[in-house]
């Protein structure tokens, strides 16, 4: 393996800048970098693609695409033309500003042309993850009142269009499509469409994208983001992802989830970066190969992926040239300190944790290239963002007190609405000042935030407060443990006891000795009260696509309760 010698990636954004702007950054400064500051004409697709296509970046590769059967690349100029063709086709069938156009298909270049084309006509994109089954697809199309769906012949059987009276057109992306009734041939139509399009300029507060996400109760909710979010997509791609002109950037997330759009479409292209998209399934070999093939320099992925790579072993890494990697970042769930140490060991690179969520639209609390990392901490708020730990009344708590992680409302990429559910939207705020994330955390004396769990996951055992993440992190440090999920199990004496579900690494088998060894390992490494009293081995743990262990599913297993909505679960 070739690796570069730098152990810390150094951004242009330095600590002094950070400290100066902390809490006081004025987002108008970012607006000035875009023509809409003067013209008042806004459209993210223009800023992400056309602006570069009309500049020195015209022939720069915007999209490198690869899966088992395709290997293609598109320049900014080509992206502009393809998305214009989609926009023309959509306009022709009557799609207007504010209409919802849903895209339900596996990753492919067409998916990206479709998303950008939708934005160019001023419509709202609704990305649907390809693994959704019929009920999940129906809920989302129904709730959003989607007018158009872009999908593939394979996925069509999961679209109950006769139960969706507001759905007027279905584009099929594939070969030999027969146009009939509401079905239209996507590829043929875009090939025949004009390559020029007059972009629909919108207001910065107009709808851009609608992501459905599950809460702890009820049906998934549609989180709406507006064009104004681009200010933060752009600025975080600069400060946090550290993107520069020559970077080859790879975000591993699917655009069915917010990471795959905010940082798989908007952030990198607003920066004019070359964006690598790899379709198909995960394997450690294919991922390392992708980094080598494209010479990836900046890599944004998730703890679950890093842990899978970690358990594939360090020998494997030696077969690839990963020397181009200069900056790595992570999102979706707590990044175990163990993984950070592994990153330094095998890539000679720090993995920078970033915290945000579907509702926040973009990164908010992060580790920056210029900053010291405290492994296990999510980092510090973005300049211009005020984060705090508040109690249930919305009063700010002092350092080290655990409470609700909250953000002062009004950042550029904050969700603008929950579709069809304004009441739910309002309920996310306290005192009309704080957006309450649903995560519990504390802040240390240096202003670093430490994730403790979702508010409802914290375990109380014999009067001791235990965050499941701490226990899980400790568990995965044990050589036999690949994945761990920890829950509180009701107990008549202790209130709750800690129960761990564990997936073992290859080559290890479950035994009473191993259980005892793991218990002792946590007892010794963390705290006696934090050691799981019960351990159960499973082949696989339930996880969301963004990689979070679904503790509520573990809890349901344990208590024999219904598991609830599983639409966000990894297949
Ligand atoms: C929840 C949001 C935003 C991209 C993917 C997830 C958890 C997210 C971290 C982190 C600990 C994290 C939180 C949050 N989460 N990032 N760096 N450390 N937890 O988006 O599906 O909307 O989930 O993911 O619990 O509330 P999402």
Automatic annotation (TrEMBL):
AMP-binding enzyme C-terminal domain boundaries: 470-548
E.C. code: 6.2.1.1
GO MF terms, alphabetically ordered: acetate-CoA ligase activity
Sorted UniProt keywords: Acetylation, ATP-binding, Ligase, Nucleotide-binding
Broadest EC class assigned to this enzyme: ligase
Taxonomic superkingdom: Bacteria
Residues annotated as domain AMP-dependent synthetase/ligase: 51-416
Cited PROSITE patterns: AMP_BINDING (PS00455)
Family annotation (InterPro entries): AMP-bd_C (IPR025110), AMP-bd_C_sf (IPR045851), AMP-binding_CS (IPR020845), AMP-dep_synth/lig_dom (IPR000873), ANL_N_sf (IPR042099)
Protein name: acetate--CoA ligase
Species of origin: Ectobacillus funiculus
Gene of this entry: acsA
């Amino acid at each position: 393996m070739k690796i570069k010698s730098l152990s810390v990636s150094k951004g242009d954004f330095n600590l002094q800048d950070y400290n100066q702007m902390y809490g006081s950054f004025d987002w108008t400064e970012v607006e000035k970098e875009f023509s809409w500051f003067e013209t008042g004409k806004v459209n993210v697709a223009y800023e992400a693609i056309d602006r570069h296509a009309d500049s020195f970046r015209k022939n720069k590769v915007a999209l490198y695409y690869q899966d088992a059967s395709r290997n293609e690349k598109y320049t900014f100029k080509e992206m502009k033309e393809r998305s214009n063709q989609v926009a023309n086709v959509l306009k022709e069938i009557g799609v207007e500003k504010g209409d919802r156009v849903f895209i339900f298909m596996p990753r492919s270049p067409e998916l990206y042309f479709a998303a950008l084309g939708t934005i160019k006509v001023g419509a709202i994109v609704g990305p649907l993850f390809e693994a959704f089954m019929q009920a999940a697809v129906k809920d989302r199309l129904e709730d959003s009142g989607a007018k158009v769906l872009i999908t593939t012949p394979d996925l069509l059987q999961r679209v109950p269009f006769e139960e969706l009276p507001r759905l007027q057109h279905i584009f099929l992306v594939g070969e030999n499509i027969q146009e009939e009734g509401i079905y239209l041939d996507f590829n043929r139509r875009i090939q025949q469409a004009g390559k020029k399009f007059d972009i629909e300029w919108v207001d910065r507060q107009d709808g851009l994208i609608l992501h459905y996400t599950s809460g702890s109760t009820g049906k998934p909710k549609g989180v709406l983001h507006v064009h104004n979010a681009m200010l933060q997509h752009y600025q975080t791609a600069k400060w946090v992802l550290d993107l520069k002109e020559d970077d080859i950037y790879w975000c591993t997330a699917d655009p069915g989830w917010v990471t795959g759009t905010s940082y798989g479409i908007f952030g990198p292209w607003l920066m004019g970066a070359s964006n690598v998209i790899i379709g198909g399934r995960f394997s450690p070999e294919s991922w390392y190969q992708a980094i080598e093939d494209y010479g990836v320099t900046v890599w944004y992925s998730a703890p679950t992926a890093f842990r899978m790579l970690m358990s594939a072993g360090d020998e494997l890494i030696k077969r690839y040239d990963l020397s181009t990697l200069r900056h790595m970042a992570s999102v979706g769930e707590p990044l175990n300190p163990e993984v950070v140490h592994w990153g330094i060991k095998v890539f000679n690179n720090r993995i920078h944790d970033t915290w945000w969520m579907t509702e926040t639209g973009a990164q908010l609390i992060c580790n920056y290239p210029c900053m010291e990392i405290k492994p296990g901490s999510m980092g510090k708020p973005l300049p211009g963002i005020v984060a705090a730990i508040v109690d249930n009344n919305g009063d700010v708590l002092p350092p080290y007190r655990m409470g609700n992680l909250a953000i002062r409302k009004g950042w550029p990429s904050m969700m603008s609405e929950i579709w069809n559910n304004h009441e739910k939207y309002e309920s996310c705020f306290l005192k009309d000042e704080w957006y309450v994330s649903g995560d519990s955390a504390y802040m240390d004396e240096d202003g670093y935030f430490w994730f403790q769990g979702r508010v409802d996951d914290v375990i109380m055992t014999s009067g001791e407060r235990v965050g499941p993440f701490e226990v899980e992190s400790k568990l995965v440090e044990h050589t036999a443990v690949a994945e761990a999920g920890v829950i509180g199990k009701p107990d008549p004496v202790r209130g709750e006891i800690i129960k761990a579900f564990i997936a073992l690494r290859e080559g290890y088998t479950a035994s009473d000795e191993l259980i005892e060894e793991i218990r002792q390992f946590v007892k010794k490494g963390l705290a006696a009260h934090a050691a799981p009293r019960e351990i159960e081995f499973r082949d696989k743990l339930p996880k969301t696509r963004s990689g979070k262990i679904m503790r509520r599913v573990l809890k349901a297993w344990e208590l024999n309760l219904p598991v609830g909505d599983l639409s966000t679960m990894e297949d």
